Amino acid sequence: xxxxxxxxxxxxxxSTWKFRVLMNWYPMYFGSGGKIxxxxxxxxxxxxxxxxxxxxxxxxxxxxxxxxxSAADPFYMLMLFKALGPAYVVWDKSASIRFRKPGxxxxxxxxxxxxKDLKEIKDSVAANSEATRTFTIQWVxxxxxxxxxxxxxxxxxxxxxxxxxxxESQRAKLDFKLREQ
Length: 181
What we know:
Helix content is 38%, strand content 30%. The protein has 6 helices and 6 strands, in the order ααββααββαββα.
C-alpha cells in the first residue's frame, strides 16, 4: 500500500502493471529488497518501497546501504527509455548516495519525470546530439523524513549519433591494437 503522500492522478496501464510485476520478481531486483508499488502508464512516475526485513537489515539493525542503493537502481534510465522512445539511447552514467538517517522502518521513494524534463532533454539532444541529466531520489519514511538521497546521472543521445560514435570508438580501439602488433 502506498503512503498517502504518494497519491497521484496518474493510472497504470496493463503494460506498465505487467512490467512492474515482472520487475518485482526479477531475481536481481527482488534481491535488493525493493518493491515497485506503482508505474504510470506514461512512464513519468514510479513509486518504490523498501522494508526492513531479514534480507535488508545490516549489522546494527538498520536498512543496509546496499539495499537502499540497489533498490533505486535502474528506474530513471528505464523511464526515460520508455518515455523518449526508440529514437534515443539512454544509459545510466553514474550514481552516488548520501545517507541522512538510519532506516529502521519501511522507506519509500518517488520518481518523477515531467513534461518540462522531457522537453529540456529533447532540446539538448537536438542541439548537441547527446546530453546528461541528473536526477535526485529520496528515500523517506511515512512521516516524509529523508533517510537517504541518491543522485543518478543518465546519458541520453540521438540513436544515430550514438551508433556512429560507438562505431568510431570501436574502430579506434581496433586501430590501436593493430598498431601494437
